[in-house]
Design goal:
This protein is of the alpha/beta class and 97 residues long. The chain has 3 helices and 5 strands. It has helices spanning 10-18, 47-55, 78-83; strands at residues 3-6, 25-27, 40-43, 59-64, 87-91. It has a 5-stranded mixed β-sheet with strand order 2-1-3-4-5, with helices on one face. The longest helix is centred in the N-terminal third of the chain and has 9 residues, at 10-18. It is globular, with a radius of gyration of 13 Å.
Length: 97
């Protein structure tokens, strides 16, 4: 089992490290071919990728924020993420046929 943290944002990396969360691999972009059953993927993925992670038998934990409009598109520090109620939430996403 591998725990993947997917983010290209330095603030998100600092935030997760300050939370005491452990992960095995930090990557900037997800390669779905690397995901195996039992793995865990942490990040802010588009819904179609989150669904594929779940379809492969892995767990998806979404890095959620309550982001105000003025902060959209901005790089956030770990402290700014805390101010935006950053948290990890587990989701099971499935594409319907």
């Amino acid at each position: 089992m591998t725990i993947w943290f997917v983010s290209r944002h330095p603030g998100a990396l600092a935030w997760i490290q300050h939370q005491g969360e452990t992960y095995d691999q930090h990557i900037h972009h997800l390669d779905l071919d690397q995901i195996s059953p039992g793995d865990e993927v942490i990040g802010t993925l588009p819904v179609h990728l989150a669904a594929e992670v779940c379809a492969r038998g892995a767990r998806y934990r979404h890095l959620s924020l309550q982001l105000p409009d003025h902060a959209r598109g901005q790089e956030l520090s770990a402290a700014e993420m805390n101010a935006c109620a950053a948290r990890l939430e587990t989701y099971f996403v499935r594409k319907e046929a």
